[in-house]
């Protein structure tokens, strides 16, 4: 058990594995809730479990949301069904790895957070504006990372539409078609039992598309998210060690999670570097590029 805890601590200590951290947080919340459900159900106090769960779900009613504003964030880190979290985390991992490789860790966080927030906002708007949902508003609540995962998936598909995944029984399929299939599936389910939730997935998809398109034109929607994450990380960062020798003081500081040297702010390559990267692609394909080469290629595309 201690080895597992140590492994988790090591993962959280790393600065460039945002995707793993998001998955670990979702998994930890799921396991805690599962354990709580088992304990409280066996002790015949299941009502306590559902009360705890309700504090994490996003309510459709704005009157209830006013008293629980934190649910706009907590809902997309919360799952109750094992297949729900399994699908969302696999979906997030497959597409998130591409965003991480080409754009850096901070863009994964931005896509995930903005997609989740947009999905939650649209969910409440739908239930409070459309007559179709009015009769269900008091009993409707949403949980799960689907909208956030959709944002990452569509973001990756917008960035690399012709990148292929090798799927079992189906073979190589371009990721733009995979993303399109799930968008159509959400639309098809938009009049079912979880209509508002399925439509909120589409809000995440729109955010993913807009985020990448604006980023390619030099506008980064994620800047407020980066600032909040950096401020949050500074609160929990250990004080830098200090060593004083004679009258000369040396201060050793940890680098910022998203410092100037991070992958998200890599310098634009010159034409020689671009030609070298393109030659490597023609010889060995996109998969042969290093993280830095992928990010340089994306940086070059922004200058066009």
Instruction: Report helical residue fraction.
Output: 55-70%
CATH topology of the largest domain: Rhomboid-like fold
Gross geometry: globular
Strand order of the largest sheet: 1-2
The strand count comes to 6
Any idea how many domains? 2
Alpha-beta content class: mainly alpha
H and E order? HHHEHHHHHEHEEHHHEEHH
**Name of the top-level CATH class of the largest domain:** Mainly Alpha
Q: How large is the share of residues in beta strands? A: 5-15%
CATH level 4 superfamily of the largest domain = Rhomboid-like
- The low-pLDDT segments are 246-264
Instruction: Return the average pLDDT rounded to an integer.
Output: 80
Number of helices: 14
For the report, how would you describe the main beta sheet?
2 strands, antiparallel
Radius of gyration: 22 Å
Write the CATH architecture name of the largest domain: Up-down Bundle
Distance between the termini: 52 Å
């Amino acid at each position: 058990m201690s080895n597992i805890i140590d492994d988790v601590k090591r993962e959280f200590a790393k600065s460039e594995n945002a995707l793993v951290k998001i998955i670990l947080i979702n998994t930890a919340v799921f396991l805690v809730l599962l354990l709580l459900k088992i304990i409280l159900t066996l002790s015949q106090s299941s009502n306590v479990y559902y009360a705890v769960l309700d504090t994490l779900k996003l309510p459709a009613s704005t009157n209830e949301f006013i008293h629980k504003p934190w649910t706009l964030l907590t809902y997309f880190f919360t799952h109750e069904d094992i297949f729900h979290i399994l699908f969302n985390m696999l979906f997030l991992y497959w597409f998130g790895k591409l965003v991480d490789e080409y754009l850096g860790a901070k863009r994964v966080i931005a896509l995930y957070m903005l997609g989740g927030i947009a999905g939650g906002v649209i969910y409440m708007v739908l239930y409070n504006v459309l007559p179709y949902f009015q009769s269900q508003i008091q009993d409707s609540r949403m949980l799960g990372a689907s909208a956030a995962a959709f944002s990452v998936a569509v973001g990756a598909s917008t960035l690399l539409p012709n990148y292929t995944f090798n799927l079992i029984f189906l073979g190589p399929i371009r990721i733009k078609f995979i993303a399109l299939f799930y968008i159509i599936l959400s639309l098809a389910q938009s009049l079912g039992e979880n209509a508002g939730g399925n439509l909120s997935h589409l809000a995440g998809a729109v955010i993913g598309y807009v985020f990448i398109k604006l980023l390619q034109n030099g506008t980064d929607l994620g800047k407020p998210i980066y600032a909040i994450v950096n401020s949050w990380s500074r609160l929990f960062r250990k004080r830098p060690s200090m060593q004083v020798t004679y009258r000369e003081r040396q201060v050793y500081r940890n680098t910022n999670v998203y410092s100037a040297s991070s992958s998200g702010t890599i310098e634009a390559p010159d034409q020689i570097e671009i030609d070298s990267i393109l030659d490597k692609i023609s010889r060995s394909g996109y998969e042969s590029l290093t993280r830095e080469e992928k990010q340089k290629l994306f940086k070059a595309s922004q200058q066009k």
